Structure formats: structure tokens, C-alpha cells
Amino acid sequence: MPTTPRVWISLQAHERLHRELDTLRFLYSAGPADGDTDENVAAVRHAWEKRMQQIHDLLIHAVVGDDPPNDGVAEPGMVVTIRYDATGDTNTFLLGVHGAEFADIDVYSVQSPLGAAIAGARPGDHRTYRLPTGGPLAVTLLSAVPYGMHTADLNQPTPHGK
């Protein structure tokens, strides 16, 4: 019997998803009946049903706010920084559930090509993944820190003169 993997989301994302689900349930219950023959209304109701199911499934399998260990391994709940080997450019993002977080940081899921490539990596590990065009792209993991530590660092005052 297959098991559905647990997914990491922040407490803020958990609360936001609950509010969105409550809003969708209210709109769905207050809207026209299922027998309405307007195709646009039916399409909107179907989209609401689909989104409510997505949120429900996500919340059932969510690990809320418990940061993974600070061991440097790229896994859900970690803010990772990678370097694109060809250009030297860097990118910092959260490995999590796309669409579940706030806009304070980009989110990549471990099912995305980049997320899958770096999952399990440690700082200094080189990984390659395929772009949608089919070409390979090499990256190096520079760091991986728990989301809670990353957000705490952002909230620290900076010394004067820096």
C-alpha cells in the first residue's frame, strides 16, 4: 500500500491555507446550486472544489513548522543557497511546497527538477538537472539552513555601519 509523503510547511503557511479553505467553503456554500446550467458558474465551482481538495490533501499530510535538523542537508523545510556552476550566479530558496508559503522567499518543491537534484545534498556537493529544454544545468549546494533559522537571521538587527 503506497504511503503519501509528509510535506513541510511553515506555521504561517498552515494558517494561510486554513483561511483560504474557509473562504472557499463559504463561497461554495453561498454560491449557486450544482444544478445551475451556466457553464461559467459550473467551471468556477469546479475550480473551487479542486482547490479545496488540494488544500485539504496538503493539510492532512503537513508537518507544520517543525524545522528539520540543522545538519546542512538539503531537504524540505531548509532554505538552500546554490551556485549555478556555468555562471557563478547564486539563488536562495526554500525547499517546501510550492504555493504554500508567503512571498518572502521563492519556494521549490522536491518534485521540481532542481529540488529533486539537490535533495539530500550537502554543502559542496555538485548536482546536475535537466532544464525544460532538455539541456543539463550543473549546480553546487553552498548552504542549507532550517527555515526558522533563516527567518530569525532576517529579523536580527544589523550593526551600524554595515
From TrEMBL:
<dbReference type="GO" id="GO:0003746">
    <property type="term" value="F:translation elongation factor activity"/>
</dbReference>
<dbReference type="InterPro" id="IPR001437">
    <property type="entry name" value="Tscrpt_elong_fac_GreA/B_C"/>
</dbReference>
<feature type="domain" description="Transcription elongation factor GreA/GreB C-terminal">
    <location>
        <begin position="71"/>
        <end position="142"/>
    </location>
</feature>
<keyword id="KW-0251">Elongation factor</keyword>
<keyword id="KW-0648">Protein biosynthesis</keyword>
<protein>
    <submittedName>
        <fullName>GreA/GreB family elongation factor</fullName>
    </submittedName>
</protein>
<dbReference type="InterPro" id="IPR036953">
    <property type="entry name" value="GreA/GreB_C_sf"/>
</dbReference>
<dbReference type="Pfam" id="PF01272">
    <property type="entry name" value="GreA_GreB"/>
</dbReference>
